Task: structure prediction
Amino acid sequence: MMPYLAKILLYPIKSFDGVEVEKARVLSSGTLEFDREFAIFDERGNFVNGKRHAKIHSLRAKFALSNRTLSLQIPGSNSEQVFHLDGDKQALTATLSDFFGFTVKLQQNSVQGFPDDTERLGPTVISTATLTEVASWFPGVTVEQMRRRMRANLEIGGVPAFWEDQLFSSQSDQTVSFRIGNVNFIGVQPCQRCVVPTRNPDSGLADAQFQKTFVTQRQATLPNWVAISRFNHFYKLSVNTIASISPFEAMLQIGNEVAIIG
Result:
């Protein structure tokens, strides 16, 4: 079976729930359109995100990208509040400030968004089999819950677990070229994980043993063709990428074939 693009997940507001789409446009910056387009900041200019504020996990968000709307469920509320992402920024900011208990600002960057890795702006890549394998390390954690913990953009089907570890080179100064549909990418490095995967994606409660278990299992299951030199530690999963810039509109679509080309 040929590797293929099985899922596309966008996260319109950084650290909020994602939205699964059938296709996504690759912007000239190399980012996916709508992904991390918005981010929340405090008055000091720091991100208000899952790394700093576990409380954010308790918010439930549904996005209708065609309408540019967000349906937000605040804990303890019986109904969703609907905001237009462009027209209701002030109302949304006020609601979020009340929720966090301090003043926040909602900022927008429709060119490259607010990725964690500001040098490698391409989508993060993982395989469905990897998520299935990693979920099996943690009793009671489903594949969907692991997907929400890892928050990768592109999910590859038709491949074994950790197939995506082929998408970075054994040498840190080299890269691997691959194609999804008609879009070319460069795989750069395994993605270093933060505190977010250790937490329940609904409650924000952390599993104190998560990282230790993850590191032990990741090292034990690392494919034998992967250069261990790329792992100064084993709390890494998925691949950071750079999308090749093209003057033509580039679209990704579910079902696109995936091929390593160099």
About this structure: Residues 51 and 196 are 6 Å apart (CA to CA).
